[in-house]
Amino acid sequence: MGSRTPRKTNDDRRARIEAMRKAEASRERRNRVITIAISGVVVAGLVGFGGYVLNKENEEKKAEEKLLAQPISGEKSFKKLSQTHVETPVTYPQTPPVGGDHNKVWLNCDRQVYKEPVPNENAVHSLEHGAVWITYNDKAPKADVEKLEKRVKDTSYTFISPVKDQKDPLMMTAWGKQVSVDSAGDKRVDQFLGKYVNGPQTPEPGAACTNGVSAK
């Protein structure tokens, strides 16, 4: 057999190179199409998930607003409360007190859990600053007290302490507002905190809740 001519060999080489280039170009186009398709699916998924999250957040916000708009069952309101600073003990008409004359120094009230009774006069000053005071007596279930203590640790401008002679086992107090609740899971706990932590009833909203005094 005769040998192949150099020209024929070069033509074959060029043909193979051209075929390889076409195959590579075809693979690149195919990969781009796949990448674009996958990206489209991912983006669509993210958009769908984002829409789901936004809808869920909107639904939760509406549910919260609806809850806060409802009157709090059993809530009592007190008006015309004095705000005079005094250095002597005060006899309050409510237990625990909801406002009135008080000590010039507030009780530390930012996520504070007190295991012993606190001075009323300092606590009332904290209410003036927008804090909510949760209290309990000896009849309160231990499990409820522990849950409310945890809630306080998670909520700014709140404090909890025992008040032995209050009329109901679990009570919540803000400046001029008070309600008794049945348990730590009572929906009024969320309502009261949502409405009255630095709420519209606060005489001095945003005033300090730290650097005051702590119960001994």
Automatic annotation (TrEMBL):
Q: Does the keyword Chaperone apply?
A: no
Q: Superkingdom, according to UniProt?
A: Bacteria
**What UniProt keywords are attached to this protein's entry?**
Membrane, Transmembrane, Transmembrane helix
Sequence intervals crossing the membrane: 33-54
Where does this protein have compositionally biased stretches of type Basic and acidic residues? 8-28
Pfam families from the entry?
Answer: DUF3105 (PF11303)
Where do the coiled-coil regions begin and end? none
Return the InterPro entries for the record. DUF3105
- Disordered: annotated span: 1-28, 196-216
Q: What is this protein called?
A: DUF3105 domain-containing protein
Q: According to the entry, what is the taxonomic lineage of the organism?
A: Bacteria, Bacillati, Actinomycetota, Actinomycetes, Kitasatosporales
